[in-house]
Amino acid sequence: MEEQQVGSLHFQIDFSQPLYEQILDQARSAIAKGEIALGDKMPSVRELAQELRMNPNTVMRAYQELERDGLTEKRRGQGTYVTSSPEHVASFRTALAARYIDSFMEQMESLGFAWEDIEKYIHQKKDTPLGGNGL
Amino acid sequence: MEEQQVGSLHFQIDFSQPLYEQILDQARSAIAKGEIALGDKMPSVRELAQELRMNPNTVMRAYQELERDGLTEKRRGQGTYVTSSPEHVASFRTALAARYIDSFMEQMESLGFAWEDIEKYIHQKKDTPLGGNGL
Amino acid sequence: MEEQQVGSLHFQIDFSQPLYEQILDQARSAIAKGEIALGDKMPSVRELAQELRMNPNTVMRAYQELERDGLTEKRRGQGTYVTSSPEHVASFRTALAARYIDSFMEQMESLGFAWEDIEKYIHQKKDTPLGGNGL
Amino acid sequence: MEEQQVGSLHFQIDFSQPLYEQILDQARSAIAKGEIALGDKMPSVRELAQELRMNPNTVMRAYQELERDGLTEKRRGQGTYVTSSPEHVASFRTALAARYIDSFMEQMESLGFAWEDIEKYIHQKKDTPLGGNGL
DNA sequence: GTGGTCTAGACCACG
DNA sequence: GTGGTCTAGACCACA
Predict the structure, then answer these.
(1) Is B75's CB within 8 Å of C15's CB?
(2) A103: three-class secondary structure by DSSP
């Protein structure tokens, strides 16, 4: 469980998931939450790879995905920049949230939980761990 | 996207995930939802492999995980049976649901959504797909 | 977890071990502890198989082992009898105990525990579960 | 009865038990005893398979169990490493020892030996093999 | 290079 | 018949 600060970005890496995926998720999160400002320069692939002690290919793969997401853009000879379009970020955020929700609902449904069960759980929230009857 | 009925179990297999994982998930689901009754015999490894047109080893791997989950039990020379303990099933179900919920909440949090946002979404849901303002 | 009383013998069978092995172990135990008297008649293979709802072959296999152990003897046309020689039982008991002890010590040694650790544990016995420093 | 040195690990394989189980037991032992240091790299699946002249799948199965025990951790594309958490090792060691002890006590009890008999035996031990009177 | 998944097919123990 | 172990060898994802 490594923790690294690189510019305004903060990374926390372990070995339980693919490394490129962790970079990707955490960069997405930083952009979605505005922890790194629109239009800002991302660390270079090389720099980030060095800081995180990874192979540059691993970082590059994450950066490619970010660009495909529309969250970053490469500028020739200058590096990678966070998009300056708030719309891009917003639409990405809702699209990803939708995917998360769908997949979550599918999982819960496969265990026989209905919307109501989950809703009930959300109302209880952190106060009580999973109870007995249903959820 | 294959669909197969094997005894009281229904399988739908594609190539987007490991095969043994799909068998595992769908068998878990069938047991958790009571689609296959407690104490019932599961299809034999060979039979299921043949029906799903896959290698017996692949099916066996899924069956081993099911047993580790406490959802099934092997009887030498007789076959694989669903546990007859409702407690095992219930505790497995809540434990897995808890994992799903935690991981989902973490994902949503990483996009900057709070409990309230999700709650709000659930209240709208199904009627309206993902909206524009936040979620 | 089935429980069955057959004559003076008591069996408790589950599916976590080979069935013939459970019969064997429990019959050995009954003879070693004198729960069935020297010279007594054992249940017939058929009878025991019926009571335990097993294949007679399974029971037979256990009976063959018992005879190899010198704990029982077949009498033509009469059935299987517990040996009437206390020496046979005693020597079997010590030999088997020796095997158990050797194998146990090997296991504990493989985890880096020495005689002294085990001795210490035995002195504490059931009072305290496994503690922190060493054992 | 093969003997093989692989890195800092020593393996001794025969055909009396499943091969993967022997690898598992001996690797557990090496880790529990500190014969391989915390955080060290294990031999790769392929390397060990080649040295022990067995199929990589067989080695992999043992490695999967080791990871489930919390004794090792896989790092994608890098290899398998011994956990660097002494707590994991310690808790595994005591848990396994407890299982060994319980099962041993049950065996001895089934032969009619009590705690005191075993204690007595331990006090004699090594000097004298199994005696005649009781144990 | 690493581990992970999968297939095809053999042989074994158990009932 | 059941599940369990093992081999040989392919192909994939990740670093």
Answers:
(1) yes
(2) helix
Window B80-119, strand F contacts by Cβ < 7 Å: 80
Residue A41 CB contacts under 8 Å (≥ 6 apart), including other chains? A78, A79, A80, A81, A82
Nearest nucleotide from residue B60 CA, by C1' atom: F3
Co-location of B78 and B114 in the same domain: no
Q: Which tens digit of pLDDT belongs to each residue from A88-111?
A: 999 999 999 999 999 999 999 999
Task: Give per-residue pLDDT as tens, B34-85.
Answer: 999 999 999 999 999 999 999 999 999 999 999 999 999 999 999 999 999 9
> Which residues on chain C are in Cβ contact (under 8 Å) with D95?
130
Instruction: Choose the weakest-confidence range: A21-25, B125-129, C29-33, D47-51.
Output: B125-129
Q: Do B75 and C18 touch (CB under 8 A)?
A: no
Q: Based on the structure, what is the number of domains in chain D? A: 2
Report whether pLDDT(D133) > 70.
no
Closest of D43, D77, D78, D76 to residue D62, by C-alpha: D43
Instruction: Identify from D100, D102, D124 which residue to disrupt to test chain C contact, counting C C-beta atoms within 10 A and taking the largest count.
Output: D100
* Separation between Cα atoms, residue C72 and residue C28, nearest integer Å: 10
- Which of B51, B68, B84 lies at the terminal end of a domain, its last residue? B84
pLDDT over 50 at B134, yes or no: no
Q: Which residue of B has its CA nearest to C18?
A: B76
Distance of residue C49 Cα from the nearest chain D Cα, in angstroms:
22
Does any domain span residue B107?
A: yes
Q: Assess whether B24 and B77 both reside in one domain.
A: yes
Whether residue B119 is found in the same domain as residue B96: yes
* CATH classification of the domain holding A7: 1.10.10.10
Q: Residue with CA nearest F5 C1'?
A: D18
Residue A135 lies in a domain: no
CB contacts, 8 Å: A18 with chain D: 76
In this structure, is residue B43 part of a structural domain? yes
Q: Are the Cβ atoms of B122 and A125 closer than 8 angstroms?
A: no
Long-range contacts of B64-67 (CB under 8 A, 24+ apart): B65/B20, B65/B24, B66/B24, B66/B27, B66/B28, B66/B31
pLDDT for C126 equals: 54
Q: Which domain holds residue D120?
A: 87-125
- Which of A124 and D103 is assigned the larger pLDDT? D103
